[in-house]
Amino acid sequence: MKYQEDNFYIDRILNGEVAAYASLVEKHKELVFSIALKILNNREDAEEVAQDAFVKAFQSLKTFERKSKFSTWLYRIVYNAAVSRTRKKKLEFVAMNESLIENYSGEEIAGRADRMDENDQRVLMEKALKRLPEEDHLLVTLFYHSDHSVDEISFITGLSSSNVKVRLHRIRKRLYEEISEMMRKVELV
Amino acid sequence: MERDDFVQDEFLKKMVGRVPLESPSDDFTRKVMAGILVEPETAKAGKPFSLFLKSWSLYILLGVFAVIFFLSSDIPYLTFIPGKEFFSDHIAPYFISMFAGLAKLFTGSKTLSITLSLMVAGGLLFAVDWIVRRRSEARHHAA
């Protein structure tokens, strides 16, 4: 389904058309739920937190000053709610094992992956993402899936911009390494 | 929004895009909308006075202190306030005796007065911290 810009729905909601919020929920529910799920690792809890976040966002919509994107603001609400549910003050990002990171040729991996069909690419990527810690998977989702900038991710997660940048750089290396290793294994079989 | 070339990678973007996001249950949107439509009703039915008190308590308290101060003060320019004379003659003595009683607590014994002073100071710090936190949270929320 093709959605309008968020501000289109927000204007309608603020003019009293509450039903327009359903479109905003439909548009963002998968990412909001994914964020909660990656933090909580439990579908029921994630669904509850995601629903509460949407209700809270609706109630606070009048105070949303549009200085950031609505999605960034909404993801911050769900991120904080999910982290609070884990009873931690902040999400702990696990330090990466640098020894895992070896040399690879990004172009070669991309070239080989391009020769695979879409379904195989999906399976390959799913496996690679599953090997990441959930917190890093969350950063990948926010950066590559929802197209948020480093500064926006910093706003959502409370991490500093430089920390987000460093983590994304390492995650990127790690993903290439995982993909390369899996491709090697497939070729050996 | 500006992107960072250092971590940007079109290949990974395409590959990650192939992996579908997790989906919540089918009735997710319906439940959210039900939550939204129920919330204002419950708010209307049971919360208005408590919410009003919660958000205005500090201002109400300051207002009461201001009224007591002006009514009981000897500042000559404030004699025009209606009921000031009645307040000074009949009500102020109660306040004065109450404050005198409180003052006795602080001047009675050394240990008690130090303990009370520490408790009052701690309470004030806690109150200021609570107010500042609430304000910064509200500002954060509005960003």
Description of the molecule:
The complex is a heterodimer of chains A (189) and B (143). Chain A has 189 residues and is an all-alpha fold. Chain A is built from 9 helices and no strands. Chain A is elongated and about 60 Å long. The model of chain A has no long low-confidence stretch (mean pLDDT 86). With 143 residues, chain B is mostly helical. In chain B, 77% of the residues lie in helices and 0% in strands. Chain B contains 5 helices and no strands. Chain B has helices at 10-18, 28-46, 48-72, 84-107, 110-142. In chain B, helix 3 crosses helix 4. Chain B is elongated, with a radius of gyration of 29 Å. Chain B starts with 9 loop residues before the first helix and ends with a helix. Chain A binds chain B through residues 18-19, 21-22, 25-26, 29-31, 33-34, 37, 46-47, 50-52, 54-55, 58-60, 63-65, 67-69, 73, 106, 109-110, 113, 118, 121-122, 124-126, 129, 140-141, 143-145, 148-152, 155, 165, 168-169, 172, 175, 179, and chain B through 1-4, 6-7, 9, 11-13, 15-19, 21-25, 28-29, 31-33, 35-37, 39, 138, 141-143.
What is the string of SSEs of chain A from the N terminus onward?
A: HHHHHHHHH
Determine Rg of chain A (CA atoms, Å). 19 Å
Helix content of chain B: over 70%
Distance between the termini of chain B: 17 Å
Beta-strand percentage range of chain B: under 5%
How would you concisely characterize the structure shown here?
The complex is a heterodimer of chains A (189) and B (143). Chain A is mainly alpha-helical and 189 residues long.
Itemize the secondary structure elements and their pairings.
The complex is a heterodimer of chains A (189) and B (143).
Chain A (H helix, E strand, L loop, with lengths): L5 H9 L6 H20 L2 H17 L10 H16 L20 H9 L3 H13 L3 H12 L4 H8 L3 H28 L1
Chain B lengths: L9 H9 L9 H19 L1 H25 L11 H24 L2 H33 L1
